[in-house]
Amino acid sequence: xxxxxxxxxxxxxxxxxxxxxxxxxxxxxxxxxxxxxxxxxxxxxxxxxxxxxxxxxxxxxxxxxxxxxxxxxxxxxxxxxxxxxxxxxxxxxxxx
Length: 96
Known about the structure:
This protein is of the alpha+beta class. It has 4 helices and 4 strands.
């Protein structure tokens, strides 16, 4: 079983999030930046919104690659470059 811990803090109009992904083998740590444009596009207004968006993003990523393959530091906007279906899928997930 994989456990994903997310902690975000507001930075200007965006968010800086630390993510720890743990399973029985190891733990990885990631730093994710949510730019103001991404915050607006995904309706991120509170720390709870940011943490949910990042948690759902990591669920999406972990369905497609192992935790060790996820970049250690990245901006949220880069995910769609690697996964063209990200925007559509993440909007569906966050809407529920």
